[in-house]
Every structure is written in C-alpha cells, then in structure tokens.
Design goal:
The chain is mainly alpha-helical. It is built from 2 helices and no strands. The longest helix has 25 residues, at 33-57.
Length: 58
C-alpha cells in the first residue's frame, strides 16, 4: 500500500476522532478544557497527516 494513501486514511480517522470528541455530551456547563484540548490536538494531527499524505502522493 502506498504511504500517501495510508497517511490520508489515518488523517480521516483522526478527523473522525476529533469530531467525536467535540460532539460528546457537553453537559450543563459546556465542554471541559481537556475535552477541547484533546479535540484540538486530534485536529492538528489530522491536518498534518492529511497534508503529509497529499505531499507523498504528489
């Protein structure tokens, strides 16, 4: 399997994880700080993996 395609798939899973973490039940006080931080870290990792996959394919 091509490394670029593998990185694109990984980026998709990370985006899904960030979305799932963000959409988790926020409760009456809203989202907690660690929840926002974890979703942000997953989103940054997803963007980096997707960009790396695109660059490997080009």
């Amino acid at each position: 399997m091509n490394t670029g395609i593998l990185l694109l798939v990984l980026g998709g899973f990370l985006i899904g994880g960030a979305w799932s973490t963000w959409r988790a039940d926020p409760g009456p006080q809203g989202r907690s700080g660690p929840q926002v931080g974890f979703a942000g870290i997953l989103l940054i990792a997803a963007v980096l993996a997707t960009a790396s996959g695109i660059l490997r394919l080009v």
